[in-house]
Structures are given as structure tokens and as C-alpha cells.
Design a protein that fits this description.
The chain is mainly alpha-helical. It contains 4 helices and 2 strands. Helices cover about 45% and strands about 5% of the residues. The mean pLDDT is about 90.
């Protein structure tokens, strides 16, 4: 679904919201289909790298650790790191400490209303 910038400029708010939601739904559908295609390609590939038409297709294999925090503690594999105490900074700022720099940004959130 491609709307185009000219059409978007002419849309009213209800149409903008509806179109936005339709696009998100389409993206989800396309992503699910892409994943299915990837799985099928992996089944059909005979080597880790194949050249298909004008594309180089690679099967990438990565290993990730699947360790619980308790198991990492048993192995002595825990790192303590310094972290910013965001709740404390927010409280200090709320209490009038204006020396704490902030950034402000805006974004759109759309939720379907429950009936």
C-alpha cells in the first residue's frame, strides 16, 4: 500500500489515522510473509552461500548464550556496572533542580478505542 506524499498532504486527520493503521497492519503481514519465505529458502539452500539470479544469498548462523542470571552467578560471570539513577534525577528535577539537562521529543501513538 503506497499512498504518496501528494495524497498525504491533502488528507484530513481521520484519514491520516486510518491510513497509518492500515500501513502498520500491512507491514505486519508482509513481515510474517518474509519470515516464511526466509524459512523456505533455508530449507531449499544446499550451501551457506548461493548466487540466485542477481542476488548473493547467505545463510547466517549465530550462537547466542542462553544462561540465566543464577547460572551466571554460579559461574562467576557477573559484572557490576554503574548506571544513571533516572528516578532520582527525575525527582530532583521535579523538586526544582534546573541544572539537570533534558531533551524533549514528540511522537505519535495510536491505540484502537475499546467499545
Amino acid at each position: 500500500m503506497f499512498v504518496g506524499p501528494e495524497k498525504i498532504e491533502k488528507m484530513e486527520k481521520p484519514d491520516l489515522v486510518q491510513t497509518r493503521q492500515q500501513i502498520l497492519y500491512t507491514i505486519d503481514e508482509l513481515d510474517a510473509e518474509r519470515k516464511q519465505i526466509d524459512e523456505r529458502l533455508m530449507e531449499k539452500m544446499e550451501a551457506d552461500t548461493e548466487f540466485i539470479d542477481e542476488f548473493e544469498v547467505k545463510r547466517i548462523t549465530r550462537t547466542t548464550l542462553d544462561v540465566t542470571l543464577d547460572r551466571a552467578k554460579e559461574l562467576g560471570a557477573i559484572v557490576m556496572k554503574e548506571a544513571i539513577d533516572t528516578p532520582l534525577l527525575n525527582k530532583m528535577r521535579k523538586d526544582g533542580n534546573v541544572g539537570i539537562p533534558t531533551k524533549t521529543y514528540s511522537f505519535i501513538q495510536v491505540k484502537e478505542m475499546e467499545e
